[in-house]
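Homework-ish question, so no full write-ups if that breaks the rules, but can someone show me the predicted structure for this set?
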Amino acid sequence: MRKWCAVVAVLALLVPVTALGAGAQGATIKIGVPVPLSGGNAKMGDDISKAATLAVEEWNAKGGVLGRKLEIMSFDDACDAQQSVTAAHKLVDAGVVAVAGGYCSSAAIPASAVYHDSGVAFVADASSNPKLTDQGFENVFRVIGRDDQQGPYAAGFMMKTLKAHRIAIIHDNTVYAKGLADATKAALDGKPGVQVVFFDAITPGEKDFSAVLTKVKSLKPDVTYFTGYYPEGGLLAKQFKDLGVSGKFMAGDANNDPTFVTEAGAAAEGVFVTSTPLPQDLGTARAFVERYKKRFNQDPGPYSALEYDAVNVVINAIQRAHSTDRAAIIKAIAATKDYKGATGTIGFDKKGDRTTILYIPYIIKGGKFTPYNVSS
Amino acid sequence: MTVALQQLVNGLTVGAFYALIALGYTMVYGIIRLINFAHGDIYAVGAFLGLSTYGLLRLLHVDNPILTTLLGLVVSMGCTGLLGMLVYRVAYRPLLHARLSILISAIGASLTLEYGLFLIYSPSFLVYPHLFDSPGMALGDISVSGLQIIIFVSGLVLMTALYVVVHRTKIGMAMRALAINQDAARLMGIDVNRVIAVTFFLGSTLAAFAGVLTGLYYSQISFLMGFLIGLKAFTAAVLGGIGNIPGAVVGGFLLGVLEGLAAGYFSSRWKDVVAFGILIVILVVRPRGLLGERVVERM
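A: Not a homework solution, just the prediction itself:
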């Protein structure tokens, strides 16, 4: 209770400051990018904020927007509910006109309430939990798919392509992982010949999952689907092999990272990952990948192209709105239609979810994530 | 039955880690009655120093996995042992007679080590090389990996060695004397500070050993890795009877096995609840721990 009083008090203090911050003319237009820059997901955060930097640099090279330069403000949300709320307040306080970023749903959802209260547009690049847009906030959008879209996709892939009958699902009790696991289970339940034999969580941050996997092993699954994040995913894949659990190991889109392979070593071979396509595997993203590599001397991460699009959607909206007024930007983003982004065409439905979204299966071959040809 | 046996194997591996770290807690507590909160982080430092040694050896093109592992262990254990002595000298020795301040100092040392690793190495986790990448051998339906056997056996060897040092050598005798009565020991001409420093050294080397093996076994290390396991190892030490060396070993293995069985028969989410629930019951029945704190002759 006392904590909430403190939050309210801080909010009250912020109001006059933000009112002052937004008014300045001629100064740079600030776009907020909250990402995890510390903790287990710091690498994802780094990939995301680099993509945002690239987008803004390209606009600035062309003279910015509305005759003003753009600027990225990046704060660490550590994938943590409390820290993300602090970061959100800092961004609002710094006078950002809109926010594009975020990685973990458990951080993005609490932060979205702060943005909603301050009337700032929030375009999420990687948060896929249905709750984010189900809150009914008119200022929240996302360029990634929803877990209740990935869940049925993963379920269909396991049933039709992998011909699985006994399926084990492991999540980690975080908002994202539990959401994806629930959506997958819902899509599998009641299907003839298919049985979810195991549905339980591991604890993120732990290293020994042999106890859980031993239980899974005794149930003899055809496929084990892990819906959490890659720090645990790589370890699970390794211990899955070490323990000799039957069937295939498959993981959700938060495992689409090379670190998964370095962690799991040889055990990563043949692991399936459901994911939105990596920028490298998307025809529309080829130019973006080239520019990203040239600028940062490394491959873009799995969410880089999405973040690049999220930032561009915001800037595009500022241009169409002819204003940096926060409310006008929200309206302009909602009106986005057929925007040609690096990840394909972007438009939003009433909730703020993207209308067109694509998932593909990957298989790890020779230590590389390779698109898996479903028909073969 | 198979599940129970497999969980037993898993539990003994985890338990070996707990036991190795618990020994450090129990020895320090036995001698100076201090709960060394920094001990879990000493274990983390050991893991990182091992990784650094591996990196260095790779630069020097030393590729033999057994040789690199032995060198990694020796370097990490040596350096971490010295670090343990340094922590004692800087953070604890000046406060030996200030009961509360020394506890705060221990928490400070713990945070310093954690965020030192954060700054020097990485805010994210690091990945150990896969030197012994062999899937588990199948014994019937149970799978046991070579590393699990190495961890279990070498852990037992080190624990026995420690027992021999404490009970059969002169410095061990001095440690036991200190545990009984520090003032009397000083009057008998024992160099108290030196003996305490050696205790820190021994405890830290065992933790470093566990740290390097953790890296090899799980292949993932991070600056906060010592926190949770430190807490559990401390619990194991209390469970066995803090200040009691065989007690720490028994407590470590028992906690590991309890966790494994709890995860196997309930749910992994309830693992800690079940395991720690049983611990509370044991401690209520036997407040001094399973083997008891030997009041007259601790350790």
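Now go work out the reasoning yourself. Hint: Chain A has two domains: 2-145+282-346, 148-275.
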